[in-house]
C-alpha cells in the first residue's frame, strides 16, 4: 500500500502511488455464483446488459465491462464492472465493511461504442478508465470508496483529447434506486456500487482545499450527476 504523511488543506490524506515493480500475477476470477448475483442485481436496477467487453489478458484480477443500452427510462448507456470484487480491497480497520466494490459509468446515448469506433482513443477512454480504476486497489494494495479522487497523473493531465477533465471522483450514483447501491452476498459480505465521475482540475483542487462536502455543494448547485457530459461547465472555475 502506498502510505503517505501528506495531507491536503482540508485534512484529507494524499496517497501517491509509485510505478508498479512486480511480476505479472495470476488472475483472480469472480466465482460464477458471485458473478450471477451481481448480474441479476444489475439487470433489476440498470437493465439487462446487451454486451460485455471481456478482457483477453488480465493481471491480478479479471475485469469485464458490461454495457446496458439506453432506454426511454434511462436514456443513456450504463457501463458496470465485474471482477473488481473478486478480491477484498485493503481497507482501514474502521472500514472493513467496504472491502468489496464494483464501478459504474454512464455515457450519453450517442456515445460511439461500435467495435470499429472504439479504435479511436477518444471513444474508448471511459472503458479503459473503468478497468483501470477497478484494478487500482488490487495493483496498489489500497482501496476505493465514496469521495476518493484519482488524478490522471501528477500533475494531472486531460483524460482525453475531447475533454479538459483530468481526474475521477468516486461517488454513489444518483440516477438509480437506492437499493442498487449495495448487494448483500450469501456469505455476509457486501458489494458496494460506485459511480466514477470525471472532474476538472479546479474541482479536484477545490475538494482538496475545502473538503468533499464543498465540492458536492457545487455539484448539487449545477446538477452534476454520473452521466458523462463532455461539455458540462467547470463548477469551480470561478470559485
Account of the protein in words:
The protein has helices at residues 32-45, 121-139, 201-210, 212-221, and strands at residues 51-53, 64-68, 77-82, 100-107, 149-151, 167-171, 182-184, 190-199. The protein is α+β, with helices and mostly antiparallel strands and 239 residues long. It has one domain. Strands 1, 2, 3, 4, 5, 6, 7 and 8 form an 8-stranded mixed sheet that branches. The model has no long low-confidence stretch (mean pLDDT 90). This is Suppressor of fused domain protein. Residues 60-232 form the Suppressor of fused-like domain.
Notable traits:
239 residues, alpha+beta, 8-stranded mixed β-sheet, globular, SUFU_N, SUFU-like_domain
Set down the secondary structure blueprint:
Layout: H1 32-45, E1 51-53, E2 64-68, E3 77-82, E4 100-107, H2 121-139, E5 149-151, E6 167-171, E7 182-184, E8 190-199, H3 201-210, H4 212-221
Parallel strand pairs: 4-8
Antiparallel strand pairs: 1-2, 2-3, 3-4, 5-6, 6-8, 7-8
Number of distinct beta strands: 8
Number of domains: 1
Taking pLDDT < 50 over at least 5 consecutive residues as the criterion, the unreliable ranges are none
Describe the sheet with the most strands.
Answer: 8 strands, mixed
- Average pLDDT: 90
Q: Which descriptor suits the 3D outline? A: globular
Structural class: alpha+beta
Order of helices and strands: HEEEEHEEEEHH
**How much of the residues is beta strand, in percent?**
15-25%
Rg for CA atoms: 17 Å
Q: Distance between the terminal alpha carbons, to the nearest Å?
A: 34 Å
Number of helices: 4
Q: How much helix, percentage-wise, in residues?
A: 10-25%
Amino acid at each position: 500500500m502506498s502510505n503517505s504523511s501528506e495531507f491536503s488543506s482540508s485534512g484529507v490524506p494524499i496517497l501517491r502511488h509509485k510505478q508498479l515493480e512486480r511480476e505479472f500475477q495470476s488472475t483472480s476470477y469472480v466465482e460464477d455464483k458471485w458473478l450471477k448475483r451481481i448480474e441479476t442485481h444489475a439487470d433489476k436496477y440498470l437493465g439487462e446488459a446487451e454486451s460485455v467487453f471481456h478482457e483477453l489478458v488480465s493481471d491480478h484480477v479479471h475485469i469485464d465491462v458490461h454495457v446496458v443500452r439506453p432506454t426511454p427510462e434511462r436514456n443513456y448507456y450504463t457501463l458496470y464492472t465485474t471482477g473488481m470484487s473478486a478480491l477484498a480491497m485493503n481497507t482501514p480497520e474502521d472500514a472493513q465493511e467496504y472491502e468489496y466494490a464494483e464501478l459504474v459509468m454512464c455515457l450519453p446515448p450517442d456515445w460511439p461504442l461500435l467495435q470499429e469506433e472504439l479504435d479511436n482513443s477518444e471513444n474508448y477512454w471511459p472503458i479503459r478508465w473503468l478497468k483501470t480504476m477497478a484494478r487500482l486497489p488490487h495493483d496498489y494494495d489500497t482501496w476505493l470508496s465514496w469521495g476518493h479522487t484519482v488524478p490522471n497523473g501528477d500533475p494531472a493531465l486531460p483524460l482525453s483529447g475531447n475533454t479538459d477533465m483530468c481526474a475521477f471522483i468516486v461517488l454513489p450514483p444518483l440516477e438509480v434506486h437506492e437499493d442498487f447501491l449495495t448487494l448483500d452476498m450469501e456469505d455476509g459480505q457486501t458489494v458496494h456500487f460506485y459511480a466514477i465521475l470525471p472532474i476538472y482540475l479546479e474541482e479536484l483542487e477545490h475538494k482538496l482545499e475545502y473538503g468533499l462536502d464543498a465540492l458536492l455543494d457545487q455539484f448539487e448547485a449545477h446538477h452534476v450527476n454520473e452521466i458523462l457530459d463532455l461539455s458540462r461547465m467547470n463548477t469551480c472555475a470561478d470559485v
